[in-house]
Amino acid sequence: MSSILTTVLTAADTARALPYPALARQIEAMLRDPAVVVPARIVQALPGGGSLFVMPAADAHVAITKLITFTPDNARRGLPSIQGDIVVFDVTTGSRIAILDGPTVTARRTAAVSLLAAQKLAPRTDGPLLIVGAGVQGRAHLEAFHAGLGLLEVWVASRNPASADALVRHAQTLGLRARRVDDADAALADCPLVVSTTPAQHVALRAMPRCDAFVAAVGAFTPAMVEWDAAICRRLAAEGTLVVDTRDADHEAGDLLQAGIDVSALPTLADVVLNKQTWVACPKADRQGPVFFKSCGWGGWDLAAARCVTDISP
């Protein structure tokens, strides 16, 4: 392990240590590692509507605890909605070996999970990519899909046109063709790749994705949050293929739970990676509809980031 791991990594240090393609590979390796243990996370409600998340995880080499706060109203305060750190320990000695920037890890590992899901599940990866929500996660997913899929074109929709324009300019600096769209529902008809990264305080998408689309829905990560219309979610369940990131989604996937879908019956990303019976038996062969990947977050993704930083392989 590098000596840099005895120091606190800044946001920039953390980002440099987590290139998206390498992080996606480490996430897949982590899903294949039987030594990984991830207890249920603790979500403590805070006065004023915020939440404290405590997320431990470990494998044979490293143990982590993620400590972050999520404060939805922070945008109006000019503060990030997610703040905190990830503490990494050496399993053998118990020594603290790194402190990673929590918001940076959260953004990058979430986008890398979506990237891995797209690599495994997307019928088409040539784009255009429609990003709905132009905040931190919108930018992370743009960068991840560009780095991992060779994406060439992106469309951006946001309730804040200035934010959408800023993300479009960032995409152009990466060499992408990019433009703002003001009607996300209409844009779905032209985009085989879709990522929804809104604050998920209300329904943002009310149209059906195209039949060859891959959708990564990441904004809603509690039962009360929602991005996608319930009727569309039910159509996706009937006509397409639904996959969740982990079994934690059974009680956290607000979009699907509010639509009355039995989330516990859906395959997970691990089922897909490991080709488990849950995935093999999924009645997808006779479906021509979209693939809808619902991501809610998991301490295992943060463990994968720690493994990436510490160059740990199973």
TrEMBL record:
<dbReference type="GO" id="GO:0005737">
    <property type="term" value="C:cytoplasm"/>
</dbReference>
<keyword id="KW-0614">Plasmid</keyword>
<dbReference type="InterPro" id="IPR036291">
    <property type="entry name" value="NAD(P)-bd_dom_sf"/>
</dbReference>
<protein>
    <submittedName>
        <fullName>Delta(1)-pyrroline-2-carboxylate reductase family protein</fullName>
    </submittedName>
</protein>
<dbReference type="GO" id="GO:0042562">
    <property type="term" value="F:hormone binding"/>
</dbReference>
<dbReference type="InterPro" id="IPR003462">
    <property type="entry name" value="ODC_Mu_crystall"/>
</dbReference>
<dbReference type="Pfam" id="PF02423">
    <property type="entry name" value="OCD_Mu_crystall"/>
</dbReference>
<dbReference type="InterPro" id="IPR023401">
    <property type="entry name" value="ODC_N"/>
</dbReference>
